[in-house]
Amino acid sequence: MLPKRRRLSAAEVRNIITAGRSGRAGFLSVKHIPSTQLLRAAVVVSKKVARGAVERNRLRRAVYRALVSCSGSGSVVIFVQKIPTNPLAPAFQQELMVLLEKTR
């Protein structure tokens, strides 16, 4: 899990969704606003992707786990569009890193 200072509040998420730029890679899409601050992020997994809360939380935690090692700047909201076959696989984490590089 990301520390509280690196997570976005609900109001910040709404702001980024309305005013942010978007990108997409594989299973993930992103809305972002460039900033000089430390990278702050939120992960959104809809019920269309995973019906049960347990599965949604598992996907959310997998993305947060990959974000812990990422250092950068800006504000990012990450949307999980499809269920990856293995969210703990290095390929999934590499896809996330590629997507974050596109936001810079």
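The above is record 1. Record 2 follows with the same two-line structure.
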Amino acid sequence: MESQVAGRVVFRPAAVAAVAGLAVFVVGTAGESLIIRAVHGDRRELEWLSDAVVSMAVTGLTYLWLHLRASRMRVLTLRQEQVAINEQLRLAAEIQRGLLPDVPQVTPGFRWAARMVPASRIGGDFYDFLQPTAGTVVAILGDVSGKGIPAALILSSLKTLFRMFARETVDPAAIAEGISAALHEEYAGMPYATAIVARFETAPGRLSYVNAGHPAGYLLRNGTVTAPFESGGRPLGLLPKADYRATDVDLSPGDIGVLVTDGITEALEAGPITLGQVLGASWLRLAAGRSPAEICEDLLRAAAAGPGPAGAPEWQDDRTVFVFAVEAGA
């Protein structure tokens, strides 16, 4: 059966070409005769018509062949350029992943987990984690305005600035003010970044944070949200000068803190399952001995299944979760 199919594939173009050639010959001959009769000319004197038709046909075929050749060269060039762009995007994605730190699972008094899932190869979400002293941890969760490469360009600056200011001071307000001023000086307000900058202390257990235009974080105590980390300032880098005020929260053993980007909140806002329900179920699992990393996975799975904002069927965004659990030693 394959040989018959192959035979038809080879025979059909040849037959079509032969029929087309014969048809052109017949139509051309008939057309030439009609023209000669219409002008009442001598056949021998009007033989130039055939030469003209053949010349035009050769000219047309030559043009088409050259046009096809040039088109093939353009397609080949575009493919090569696309391969180069894909390779650059792959390297950029690897560099971006390298900017994210390995969050330690355990430090004295706390357990941690963080996870980012970019909407495309390159994302605009970011987190970092620094432990300047044995009893103090400073962290940031940020989301750069825009998407793709423009948003990713600011991430390396954001990490450098965070680490620079976090080594000078552990005050979240001072860190946020320093980052904001430096970003605005460099980018003049576009792009900017929303963020939560937080300091964790173990003696006694305490959280001090600044929310710079970022979605609220959540503190769960006995399965109930007790102190949402609400907005307390302008996004970082949006204005030439922005003042921030830190908020202090006393922590107790068993508390769970969850920080997310808007890729999580917006994915769930129009869905059948709310963020609060996911957090409540996650708290029960953690109380049963599960780790903060599993809370990250719970939220990411729920957001991946969420419909996103109402009226935006093509919506997608980076999704990032940062979770901490307070241990008995805090």
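The chain is about 50% helix and 20% strand.
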